[in-house]
Amino acid sequence: MRRYRNKLIEELARQLIVGPVRLRKGYIDAAESLLETIELNVEYPYEFILYKITNYRSRRQRPLEPIIGEDLRADLRALILDLCDSFDLSVHDYNEPCYDTASLAKRFGVSTRTVRRWRRKGLVARRLVFDDGRKRIAFLNHSIRNFARRRCRKLLRSARFSRLTDSERAEIIRRAKKLVHEKNLSLIEVSRYLSKQTGRAVETIRYTIRNYDQKNPDKAVFPSHSGRIDSKTKEIIYRCFLHGVSVGVLAQRYSRTRSSIYRIVNEMRVKHLLERKIDYIYNPQFDLPGADEIILNKSEENTYQDNTCNSNRLPGDLPPYLRTLYEIPLMTPQQERDAFRKYN
After folding, report:
1. pTM of this prediction exceeds 0.85
2. I need a surface site. Which of 77, 90, 187, 325 has the fewest CB within 10 A?
3. Backbone angles phi, psi at 127, to 5 degrees
4. DSSP 305
């Protein structure tokens, strides 16, 4: 299951997932209908939410704590996807056009990353089985229409990317170079600044600059950002991170986004872990046929040495947790050898 902000909705999702399959599509559609009415800053009683999704009126005498609209919207989107994952729901179960991420991006002339951003902004997604037999993220036509109605201006702004003229691109590059020269801003800072000035999406500005830098490395707006970071630079970034340099400072220094810095740090962390040599003491039995079965699955003997200690001989100032150690039986020499061999 996905992560939920509210425990009540998470528990409701668990109950609906194990409920009758024939009712789950109705729960999904009802959850979306409810989601369209939720206001971010309004609190909603759990009993109201339960009734809207399941048509069941709670008999609880004492009402539960209400849920703020912002959290409820996020949890309802997660509930819809979890319900979709719990059974096979097909695109043919809906009498309307259905799009996956790629086809929706093509319809609006935007990138798939923009579509994923729309999802975070409230576009309702399902996971449906398409004609090729594979289940993937899907968007129903009415869900797209509802989202477009709420966010028409931003949707159109995102869709305008493919219609950038050459003169507009040149102007973006010119102004970006000026900002870098005068204010020494990072790529994301330049993108946000020009987004406000031009009315274009931040992602549009960022992509335009990066695309220009890749095609014109000798005249790049961000020369250090125009190519891939080499292994030596990644190692430096990782060492700086370990020594307490903040991600924001590293992002500024290397003209990368914060997520890129985190990705580099995680990549180097994995690299160092894989390079670390794990020592062990070799035993010839490791090479025998069926060694795993013999060594790992061998049942331990239940005979222990009698090390019971007279309570009168225990030091009087021992803490309780140490006193209990005197009551735990010791392993026999054979058990110690078996355990040592198993751990190796």
Report:
1. no
2. 325
3. -120, 110
4. B
